[in-house]
Design brief:
The complex is a heterodimer of chains A (581) and B (390). Chain A has 581 residues and is of the alpha/beta class. Helices cover 30% and strands 25% of the residues of chain A. The two termini of chain B are 19 Å apart. Classes of the chains: A alpha/beta (581), B mainly alpha (390).
Amino acid sequence: MKECRIGVYICMCGTNIAKMVDVESVAKFISAVPNVTLVKTYKYMCSNPGQEMIVQDIKQNQLNRIVVAACSPSMHERTFRGALRKAGLNQYLFEMANIREQCSWVHDDPEEATKKAMALTYAAVKRVELHEPLESIFVDMCPNVLVIGGGIAGMTTALELADSGYQVYLVEKDSRLGGNLARVDLTAPYLYSARDLLTERITRVLNNKQIQLHLQSKVTSLSGFVGNFKANIQKQNGQGSTGSKPFEVRIGNIAVCTGYKEFDASRITHYGYGKLPNVITSFELEKMIRSGRIETKEGKVPQYVAIIHCVGSRNLEFHTYCSRVCCMTALKYVHEIKSANPACYVSDIYIDMHAFGKGHEDFYKRSSEVKTLFLMYEKGDRPVIHRAGPKDDCEMLIEVNEKLSGELIEIPADLVVLMVGMEAREDSAEVAHLVNISQDKDGWFIESHPKLEPVATTTDGIFIAGTCVAPKDIPDSVAQARAVAARILAKISRGKIEVDAVYSEVDENVCSGCRFCNKLCPFSAIEYEEEKGHSHIISALCKACGVCVAACPSAAIKGRQFTDSQVIAQIDALISKVEYV
Amino acid sequence: MLYKEVIMAIRVNPRLIDDLERFGAEDVQFCYHCGDCSTVCFHSDQMYRFPRKSMRFLQMGLGRKIETTLEPWLCYYCGQCSEQCPREADPGETMMSLRRWLISRYDITGIARLFFKSLTTEILAVIGVAVLTGAFLLYYGLSQGNFSIYDGEGAFLPSHFIHSFDLLVGACLAVFLLINAVRMWFFVMVRGTSFPVPWWLYLKKLYLMVWHFFSQRRYAECKSTRPTKIFMPWIVHLGLMLGYIIMLVLVMVFIEKLQSGPRIDWSVHIFGYLASVGLIIGTIYFIRKRISRKNYVQYKKSHSTDWVFVILLFMIVLTGICQHIFHRTGLNELANGTYIIHLMAVVPWLLRMPFSKWSHLVYRPLAMYFAEIRRDALERQDAVLPSYSY
């Protein structure tokens, strides 16, 4: 093996590291370690001058291994790997020692922290000696896309991709397109007709030759990895029974836009939903509005309408989250009811009025203008609905502790509208399992980063948009749908995808074919090759978590960049009796 | 005996807000209860919090609740709340409207309500009373006196007759005001006070009624939280009020001395002149404010009843002065003519008082008085039951 010439760079991170770790002592200590050719400290190693310094040193001093003692590798490993590439050195001949998050930030004794920084850097040096040059692999990207769900989000993604010239398979479980939006009359706050919004989309989807639409269908199986998925689409006949032969498609990416379902109001007994005939859900009111007549079950025009917010939302018993759209939808009902019958009195019974979006606050004010009676109740409290007495001029009375007046009041009502929240669909777990993504405690699909990666998932090639991720309104769903399309188009335009060279490999000569690892892999990256009788790791799917490496009873699996010798060298260095002075 | 309250749900009435619109509260529905108004109000305190809470009761239509509250009377409409309101819900004007509404609620006859809601009715009533008064005086004067004699033997309207006439009108006024005041007491101190009030507190606090009546101290206090000087309106209002009172006393007690002439009897006339100056300055000041509508929020909106009041008052002052001059200069026919016109304005103006905003002359000092009695009574209650909070 060629002589090791290691360059060690110790970052002060402004004062983040330097205030707790004596970087000069660390540098002095490391310079005495064998094979270390050069040690430097710098204020901000990740800065352009810092990186340039590394590049120049590699060239001038023929360095062939680099250690940077700085922050977490999840922060800047990519940055420094780039510096190595720029200097013409294989980017894997590099190791980071985390002396910030795992050292200076968490300790308060400078002396001990400095010793720990020495140990961590020393271990990194010992490890990097054993690093080998690795090459990334490239796989082809199939440009076809599968979109699951034909609501506003699914159709938007499909149209965006199809308009760019790519083949899209749009799978919808229902017999029609439009999803939940098709059940809505007007939209808040601008009172655009939902039907108009949808008709345009649906017509375009139906007329687009690049979109192959599968109604009343389900994706029954999915295999492969990013760029090379295979999916089976099956037509559903009647009660979920399988009908015709599954239709197999090849795709490179998948957009999951499966939407939400509304909360079942009969789960709350206080409101008497299902027992009192004129207590209805928001979707039942939508239906009435669309049919053109708001009336009680007895066919009378209601004189008093009461709207109750947060039904199933924002309480410990059902869902703790806010469903985001109900407040504005309730105000929309105020306008719709008042325009249908200006003499009608509308009470809006809420916990908080969330008017956060564009145009929402103005819409709220306009709802005050028409003399809506806004009544506030305490979170955790609940209005109770009774039947009114024979002398009352209304059908029902709602009793509630009104927060803004401090009075216990009763509100007359002929029709009570329950603003039911959004919840994850009952088949969301099935979908999550199919495409191998995770769900949170409420059943919503989890994005790979809530702020920076809102539509990607932890599985490459699987994207999520709309209300299957969390409750959201139409503009947000459409924005996400277009974001998904943009992400997929970016992937397609590269033609090939680069797969990180850090992945696990099975030594086929050693593997006994016990298939123990197949079940353990959290990324479904291991497949069993029947004819050869051993397991195979799909490198494009592998995230190098190391579970299979640890689990393999025959030690047949090797983690690249995490070989036994490398890891043991690092541990040995940490526990060896070195004098840290 | 331990005090215990049984909490019953109160029915909301979404119609009340429509009703109050006729009394001037046009923007109350915009309020979203940030509470800025109550924070900025100088008079709002721990026990009497307003205007937000009054706005809330109004939005919810808790009429029976508002009836029992004193808060609208504790507000002097400095307008700071309306200036601060982020939603332009005009809390100051709402309090003003609530005062009008309360006047209509205290009034047992329902006339106040009619006047506040319909300007036409009010004008017709004023004209009706004026015509009746004029006809009666003309008939009386012609039947027993001489149109060219103003005072003394054979006078067209002899002063002893006018004295009796004034006392009759005054008695009517007093009866109505007394009944309304009793109703106010019943609403506030009986129905609206859930804790016991010892009788001697009424005696102990009686001085407050007199003090507030003559000083209008709380109006002056409004200025302390304002950058602009509200001190001026307080002085003018005080002058106007003292003008009324002096005039009322002169007319009710000293009318016979006042009417004798043509020599000027300075022992009574000096008061008459002073009162006239107060009334003229005050009236012009407030009319100008109402017309220009600048500077003060409180003059931005004028209710129709406000205008009836000032116009009648202006007529009274004008005809009163004319009549005085005509008499002193020997123009007895003109003096008698203007006297009839003067009385045609005075009688409806006085009789209208218990049914109009003017009655705040009685309700405001009463409210301060009741408010302090309640505060004292509650403090005594707290000493017994410290956990109870109002």
